[in-house]
Amino acid sequence: EVQKLNQQLEEKNGEIQQMINQPPYEKEREILRLQKTLAEKEKAQATSDVLCRSLTDETHQLQRKLASTAEMCQHLAKCLEEKQRKEKGNSDDQIPTERSNQLLDNEPSLQALICNLQDENRMLKQKVAHV
């Protein structure tokens, strides 16, 4: 290990000596090349930072939307359960009222809304997993 490190040190010293022995214009050319490389790496790092921030913001936004959608789904499920309980109570009496007829008329739209929200919820989960 020590020999390996000594060999690497000798190689670096050789490179340094080679740079020292180069004419001044070669040194300047090497300095310019290194500065250009550094600028490119800094630009790449800045771009990466912006993309990371953007993805982080989008992830948080999707998580909030997912939580909101899940909350809405839970609310709609509770409403549907209450409606079904009321319908059972009304069907036991065998006297349908205007209210139960309205609920029956709205049931397909509620189910469609629930399906849409579930689809949106699934898509948001996929997006969050992808991000």
From TrEMBL:
Region (Disordered): 1-25, 82-106
Biased composition (Polar residues): 92-104
Annotated keywords: Coiled coil
Gene that encodes it: Tnip2
Compositionally biased spans, kind Basic and acidic residues: 1-14, 82-91
Domain of life of the source: Eukaryota
Example GO BP: regulation of transcription by RNA polymerase II
Name assigned to this protein: TNIP2 protein
A GO CC annotation given for this chain: cytoplasm
